[in-house]
Write a structure and sequence with these properties.
Blueprint lengths: L3 E11 L10 H7 L2 H7 L5 H18 L12 E5 L5 E5 L7 E9 L3 E10 L1
Length: 120
């Protein structure tokens, strides 16, 4: 069965917006999964890693904007695989036949997420 590209999404975030979010448990729980927080909060500069995952989540939502299924931010999980590449898992019904290709990058000031969504 051929895969069909169903959407693309990109998002750019200013990393400094996330400096004060590290201590906001309500925000963190609303946006990130436990595994994401475990990963990001262990980093030397956690706000960079939080910001880039937030950008990735927003890019996923944009790539899926054609669907009527709403995606809460914390239902989108972006982790790092053994090879160092990020990957997306959606923890919501009706997304098992979706595949996402994601690229994340950040500088000192900005974080970007780019996603291609495919239906398999």
């Amino acid at each position: 069965m051929a895969e069909e590209i169903i959407g693309i999404g990109v998002d750019l975030e200013v990393i400094s917006r996330f400096e004060n979010k590290i201590n906001n448990k309500h925000f963190l729980d609303l946006v990130f999964t436990k595994k994401e927080l475990d990963y990001c909060l262990k980093k030397k500069v956690p706000n960079q890693h939080l910001a880039v995952r937030f950008a990735g989540k927003e890019a996923v939502i944009k790539a899926c904007s054609h669907t009527k299924n709403k995606l809460p931010l914390n239902s989108i999980e972006i982790l790092t695989g053994p090879n160092g590449a990020p990957f997306v898992t959606i923890h919501k019904e009706n997304f098992s036949d979706y595949k996402f290709e994601i690229s994340l990058s950040h500088s000192q000031d900005l974080a970007i997420g780019f996603v291609i969504a495919r239906k398999i």
